[in-house]
Automatic annotation (TrEMBL):
<dbReference type="InterPro" id="IPR038218">
    <property type="entry name" value="YuzD-like_sp"/>
</dbReference>
<dbReference type="InterPro" id="IPR036249">
    <property type="entry name" value="Thioredoxin-like_sf"/>
</dbReference>
<dbReference type="Pfam" id="PF07315">
    <property type="entry name" value="DUF1462"/>
</dbReference>
<dbReference type="InterPro" id="IPR009190">
    <property type="entry name" value="DUF1462"/>
</dbReference>
<protein>
    <submittedName>
        <fullName>Disulfide oxidoreductase YuzD</fullName>
    </submittedName>
</protein>
């Protein structure tokens, strides 16, 4: 199976989303996702990036999405697999795993 590079992007902030009281913080979610995905999938084709929505962005697509988060009052953290949003607010591993499977990421042996 030919696996392409997959990028998992987590948009979030240090302060927990007002509607997500009791949920883990965005940075905690980012680290939790890396650990959970690393236990199930071969890590080689997966890159991770964390985007702090309260910081200026150098990449246009990140800046545009950060603006969308504030304009549409989206819940964060928001998780993307490549360019597909797979989670908003409290992420569900099942949904993220399905997206990784769709992208051909191989399971650990």
């Amino acid at each position: 199976m030919n696996t392409k590079k997959v990028t998992i992007t987590v948009y979030g902030a240090e302060q927990i989303c007002a509607s997500c009281v009791g949920a883990p913080g965005s940075k905690d979610t980012y680290e939790w996702l890396q650990a959970a995905i690393g236990r199930k999938y071969i890590a080689d084709p997966i890159a991770y990036e964390y985007i702090d929505i309260n910081q200026p962005q150098d990449v246009d697509k990140h800046q545009a999405f950060v603006e969308q988060i504030f304009e549409e009052d989206l819940f964060y953290p928001i998780v993307f697999v490549n360019d597909e949003m797979v989670a908003e607010g409290i992420p569900r591993l099942k949904t993220i795993y399905q997206s990784l499977d769709k992208h051909g990421v191989q399971l650990q042996s």
